[in-house]
Fold this protein.
Amino acid sequence: MMTPLKMWCLLPLAVLLLLSISPMETKVVQSMSQCKGFLLHETPPDIPGVLEDGNIPKQDRYKVICQTYENVGRFVTLYDIQNKIPVFSAYKYKGEKGRKPECFWKIEPQLENKDNINMEDCNITTEYNNQASYNDYSGTYDKGHLFPLSYGFNEDDKISTYTLTNAVPQVDSFNQGSWRRMESCVKCILDKYCNGEGYLVTGAKP
């Protein structure tokens, strides 16, 4: 029988759905099962018409990204190349150390038919075919992290969160207000009741 403490440790997963870290040989893959270490029991969420029993019915629209920085897989994202927005990002929280890095927003080169398996800096003058561009956010919305910067274990993990494939458009008052408070609250629960470790899935519904 699950104890109340263990139930609390699983609660952030359910809360975030409502709104492992291992090297990868490739980045954009066909199945969630190819990005191991980021989902509890390696079990992805069920999203009707998008992700069902671990399978993606519309492979031409939804892409699995093993988010890779410096040749290390940091987290996994299911990305909608039609709407140019992530469906969700999944990651393993292991606590946090280090300061906020100075870095620029990145993109997933393989979505643009490039061979580079590592995320790379986005070109602010380029309109990308299969993912959001820097100017999509120009003066209108915040780039809202799904895998939060503050959840990155070390500096490289934090840098890896700065990819547009991990961001959704958020009104600044929401991103800097209730969204930030929710991130802080969930992190506090993980640190206090779950020994600083847990699996989280954060999604957005357009």
Strands lie at 28-29, 62-69, 72-80, 85-93, 106-107, 120-121, 142-145, 167-170, 198-203. The longest helix spans residues 178-193. Confidence is low (pLDDT under 50) at residues 1-26.
